[in-house]
């Protein structure tokens, strides 16, 4: 049985951040263009569900995953 990769906690310094911004801010992806493409292609999961809305608002506790890496939104 394999263990899932660790989830990095990323403090956003507030209550809300948009999905596209969080992907770059957390380091899960390198650029806005890369984030836009990954979201459009259905490669990004929010709380274990595909989400294709780049402007989706994330709140503390939400977990974003892409490419086998995950990050949890922290205030």
Automatic annotation (TrEMBL):
SUPFAM superfamilies associated with the record: Alpha-L RNA-binding motif
Domain of life assignment: Bacteria
Keyword RNA-binding: yes
The UniProt record lists the keyword Heme: no
InterPro entries, sorted: S4_RNA-bd, S4_RNA-bd_sf
Keyword set, alphabetical order: RNA-binding
Start and end residues of each stretch annotated as Disordered: 56-75
Residue ranges of every copy of the RNA-binding S4 domain listed in the record: 17-75
Protein known as: RNA-binding S4 domain-containing protein
